[in-house]
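Support case: zinc ion complex. Customer-provided input:
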Amino acid sequence: MRISELAAQIPLIDNHCHGTINHELERDQYEIYATEGDWLPRHGLSVLDEQFGVLTRGLVAPLLGLEKHCDPETYWKRRREVGQEALVAQLLPLTGIETFIVDTGFKSDNILTPDQLAAVGNGQSREIVRLETAAERMIKNSTPATFIQDYSDYLSTESAQAVGFKSIIAYRYGLDFDPDKPSASEVEQAVAEWISEIDATDKVRLSHPVLLRHVLWEAVNHKKPIQFHVGFGDSDINLHRCDPTQMTEFIRRTVDTGTNIMLLHCYPFIREAGYLAHVFPHVYLDTGAAINYTGLEHHSLIRHSVEMAPFGKMLFSSDAFGLPELYYCGASIWRSAIGDILQGWVDSDGMGQADAEKYLTWLASTNAERAYNL
Ligand SMILES: [Zn+2]
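Agent response - structure generated as follows:
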């Protein structure tokens, strides 16, 4: 069978995704969930006229009985008629994702739980524990003197069934963090400062640089893979501080700890991430979210991700949140891009058919099984 045909049907492990929204969406909500931006487009424009919107109208519209490439208003009207719940039920099984590795740390009240997501998608789910969210959940029951032990215990309990952790230090500080593990007295002092900030503002948000580093090093002790948000995201990040090569020293110091470093999204630092995966044995990467938002130009990203990264180091993820269209389009375009790239190498006789089939399987699921010890 041609590699491109195999790629269209091979079962996938989605190594980073979130739940879909569990209620009906108004137009404004849809517009916000279909972008990493935090504001609605101005001048009455719509995200359906951006890359992901064009992709959606090309790939999803025909599944809703509409003409391919229908206009934005027609798509929205039909989507509203079908409804969020029915659309989730229709699109998720069509993705061919057999395992959803779900990050539950973000807006987890109005989205499907990992179990619900797996049930509707005819797959199974595994969980990822967000390090900063875990600290924010336990801090009110802790003290500066007991925090180190309390957090360690809490993380053990929270992650008992989880396959890994997620760090959003890119959002809360930047990837140019100090690679040193903070001392116990530094942590105690930082917890005291954090607690007074919570008392003063009534907001529980972990952004203290010492504690962000502490929770990372604590995760390293637990020896499960740590996912890092890398590169583009919403307007909270400063992109120039999200280049993964800025955390090279941390990566260097964790080579022999038994912890894998999973670089997520990576746009536009795909080549930097590929380099890190090439030289460090415990570094992996994906292009989740970036493929949906680069829409019709997703091929070049995926091509960059397999330039230098070993074939055993690149993973699939959708990074879908909220909209089933993100799942469906993410899986579809990843399949077509990776299929076209491998097929091209076979057609030019640069790669044999057997190798292409082997690498396709690795990229689709085996790499995730190895990295997360599934
Ligand atoms: Zn995500």
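Residues 3-24+83-129+222-371 form a domain with the TIM Barrel fold (CATH 3.20.20.140).

Case will auto-close in a few days if no follow-up is received.
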